[in-house]
Amino acid sequence: MLNDMWCANYSTTHHQALIIDIFNSWLPTLASGPMDLLSPRAAVAKHYAGLASTTDIYLAYPRRLVLTELKHAVENLRTMTTQDAMWIGTQYCWVDLTQRFEVAHTQNRQDRCENLHKANGAVYMETVLRNIAWSDLRGYYGQSDGIFGMVVLDWLLQ
């Protein structure tokens, strides 16, 4: 055998690149559990028969791991300015953690929120609001003609 896998005809320049690509594509969505290498999900639209195959590298993956840590997220929210916190690119699903006030932009999005994102703290506006200076928020955006005042506060006060 010419490889550590004890597989006949196994090639590090072809088969190993395929396996690495499959694992890398599953990393963001599969934290643990079995991986079926024969499932349709394992298909990779790439040619591995060249002299040396390269693997796909997801440059954002290590950063994603760091930035999804709750401790890191809360610390950064608390050091952000109110203006920056209000411009976080998030598609919120609910204003509050009790899910009484829905804010998804379409009913289809709200359904996806309900089915897929309930456990994701990033889709609740309250998680941001609890970690920024409320007085600054009211001063910048909370007046009766401010975007937060008109869009969220007026609605909540009804």
Give the helices and strands, then pairings.
Layout: H1 15-26, H2 61-67, H3 70-79, H4 82-86, H5 107-117, H6 125-129, H7 134-141, H8 147-157
Describe what you observe in this structure:
The chain is mainly α and 158 residues long. The chain folds into two domains: 1-61, no CATH class; 69-157, no CATH class. The protein has eight helices and no strands.
Put the structure in a nutshell.
With 158 residues, the protein is mainly alpha-helical.
Strand elements, count: 0
| Strand-pairing-aware structural class | mainly alpha
* Cα end-to-end separation: 74 Å
Helix content range of the residues, please? 40-55%
How many helices? The count is 8
The radius of gyration computed from the alpha-carbon positions, rounded to a whole number of angstroms, is 23 Å
Strand content is under 5%
- Poorly predicted runs of 5 or more residues: none
Backbone shape: elongated
Mean pLDDT: 81
Largest sheet: none
- N to C succession of SSEs: HHHHHHHH
- Tell me the count of domains: 2
